[in-house]
Write a structure and sequence with these properties.
heterodimer, A: about 300 residues, mainly alpha, MetI-like fold, B: mainly alpha, 2 strands, transmembrane (chain B)
Chain lengths: ~300, ~325
């Protein structure tokens, strides 16, 4: 399929001589490889520097390799800076957000694709508009809201992981619903029809038929919910006032000192923070493109 | 990755085929009332109304009050001041500077992201399997990198004394963040690095989903490469292009983490502030919560205008919600 479409989008190529075509193909291949290497280079540099001994990091003659890989930067991060705790906090918040937003978004996506009701379009437009709201500006009223919630329900007040779960859940939902809609839409309704005729009730249809079929889409959607929660810097910075409950992005700022940055530590922490997202991306990458296609098209 | 684009093409229902299916059990006109969709939407409403809708309302309300440190911590009653915050803002030269910078920075990022993303999407269709996989996975890596870690790595690469870039260029001791526009340019590069993969992969999937037969038919009719591109491919890619453009505008207009982290909260003497960071600093650094809220409201209105344009563009290109 790839070969046919490649020639099809390059109709003029047929008219060119064969030798000419191989040369231009070779140039294109080389360009692509060079760009790919440039794109991953910062990530390579991050991982490399995380393993470099301090002496090489603080050398004014940095080299793109190391003969003395060391774990001391990671040990410092976990030992001195309490990185393990921040990592765990981030993981807890992100996991809760991913699970809850997946379930809630699935129900909403079914409502918006399988039913026709009065304010359906209005609600859809609202979900779209919600994605445009500058979240950082909302931090101001949310700060006071979270503070007030804290006096009623302490587990969701300032300096709690609960507060981060709540706000990240709210801000990942609109996009999750929007994206899941495409996946639900793509499932033929005849399956539910058949189940209905066989006497299945709505609950069974929802959880036994629709849910398993949407699962791959749910996985792709969950990446974005995960990223929202995992990458969140501004809420964590604003709501979490003690260091015990800090999450990774804001905790990374701990390594920044005026003029005396511990780059080895920063790179080790950055590497640890990037790995979970990278794994998640690679696991669901097959569904990512079609999922975005769905979110994009509908 | 390319394997999924094939089923996506087949599965993607045309707008015309969706409607009748949507009313399979009950026709659109004669449908019986059901409370089911409301039950299904209830969990979303329970989360979004208090945590999204209410703060949005509060943001608007705050912008009409005088709300500073005494009100925030001592619980003094906030005074209603009408449009005072807005007139303060509009009369402040720094606000106009920041607005100008935000627009220029966002526009430059959008243009660069789209140019790079589109060029690479086309490149992807013309290369062999292995270079393509390599480029796709490299892009996936940049896409997956959190804004925070992306910022730290690029800062390290461009560090004044220990950075690789200065070493290679023989410019040790040069501070890239000292000059306003060179700092903006550097942050811009990071933003583009983070966001071109979305554009590239979306457009590549779009190009791949154009049926080969359509292009062949055009070619048989004697259309030139340019004509095929202009009159066959471009119209078919328009819906994806629209989304990608608007999505980029929204993201780049709202850049926060990269600016905040890389320029240390807005640069030397606030020279690298963008609206988002400006609002945050006004509120949480200067404790002028109501002024920060007013900036937030103005930002929301600007983005809302973009959104309305976006929805209208979607409607015009024949998409339905």
């Amino acid at each position: 399929m790839n070969r046919t479409s490649a020639t099809a989008v390059r109709p003029a190529g047929l008219r060119r001589s064969k030798g000419n075509r191989t040369v231009s193909r070779r140039i294109a291949n080389t360009t692509a490889i060079v760009i790919a290497l440039l794109t991953v280079f910062p990530l390579y540099w991050m991982v490399l520097s995380a393993f470099k001994p301090d002496g090489e990091i603080n050398s004014v003659d940095p080299r793109p390799w190391t003969w003395h890989p060391t774990l001391s930067n990671f040990r410092d991060a976990f030992g001195v800076s309490g990185f393990g705790g921040y990592f765990l906090n981030s993981l807890i918040v992100a996991t809760v957000v991913v699970v809850l937003s997946g379930l809630v978004a699935f129900l909403a996506a079914v409502a918006l694709t399988r039913f026709n009701f009065r304010f359906r379009t209005t609600i859809l437009v609202m979900f779209l508009v919600a994605q445009m709201v500058p979240v950082e500006a909302l931090t101001i009223p949310l700060f006071f809201l979270v503070r007030d919630i804290g006096s009623v329900a302490p587990q969701f007040g300032l300096s709690t992981l609960g507060s981060l779960m709540l706000v990240n859940l709210a801000f990942s939902l609109p996009f999750a619903i929007w994206m899941l809609r495409g996946f639900v839409k793509a499932i033929p309704e005849s399956l539910e029809e058949a189940a209905r005729i066989d006497g299945a009730n709505r609950f069974t249809i929802l959880w036994r038929i629709l849910f398993p079929l949407v699962a791959p889409g749910l996985a792709a959607t969950s990446v974005f919910s995960f990223i929202t929660a995992w990458n969140d810097f501004v809420f964590a910075k604003t709501f979490i006032l003690d260091t015990d409950h800090q999450t990774l992005p804001a905790a990374l700022m701990v390594f920044f000192k005026p003029d005396e940055n511990d780059w080895g530590g920063i790179m080790a922490a950055s590497t640890l923070m990037t790995i979970p997202v990278l794994i998640f991306f690679v696991l669901v990458q097959r569904h990512l493109v079609s999922g975005l296609g769905g979110a994009v098209k509908d | 990755m390319t394997a999924t684009t094939t089923p996506a093409r087949a599965d993607r229902p045309t707008p015309a085929s969706v409607r009748p299916r949507g009313g399979a059990s009950k026709t659109k006109t004669g449908r019986r009332r059901s409370w089911m969709p409301f039950w299904l939407l209830l969990p979303s409403a329970v989360i979004l109304i208090p945590l999204f809708g209410y703060p949005l309302y509060q943001l608007g309300l705050l912008s009409f009050l005088k709300f500073g440190q005494p009100q925030a911590s001592a619980g003094e009653v906030a005074e209603f001041v009408g449009f005072d915050n807005y007139s303060t803002l509009l009369g402040d030269d720094q606000f106009w500077d920041v607005l100008f910078q935000t627009v220029v920075f966002a526009a430059a990022c959008v243009v660069a992201t789209l140019a790079v993303g589109a060029a690479l999407a086309v490149l992807l269709t013309r290369i062999g399997k292995w270079p393509r996989l390599l480029l796709l996975f490299a892009a996936l890596g940049a896409w997956a990198a959190p804004a925070m870690t992306g910022s730290t790595v690029w800062m390290f690469l461009f560090d004044t004394n220990l950075g690789l870039v200065n070493e290679v260029l023989g410019m040790q001791g040069h501070n890239w963040f000292y000059d306003k526009w060179s700092a903006f340019a550097l942050v811009g590069v990071v933003v583009v690095w983070h966001s071109f993969p979305f554009v590239m992969i979306s457009l590549y999937a779009g190009i791949e989903s154009i049926p080969v037969s359509v292009l062949e038919a055009a070619r048989l009719d004697g259309a030139s490469t340019w004509t095929v591109f202009r009159h066959v491919m471009l119209p078919m890619l328009r819906p994806i292009l629209t989304i990608v453009v608007i999505q980029s505008i929204i993201w780049d207009f709202k850049v926060f983490t990269q600016i905040y982290v890389m320029t240390g909260g807005g640069g030397i003497a606030g020279q690298n502030l963008v609206l988002n960071v400006y609002a945050y600093q006004k509120a949480f650094a200067s404790s002028d919560y109501s002024l920060g809220a007013a900036i937030g409201v103005l930002m929301t209105l600007i983005l809302l205008a973009v959104t309305i344009f976006y929805i209208r563009a979607l409607r015009r290109s024949g998409e339905e919600l």
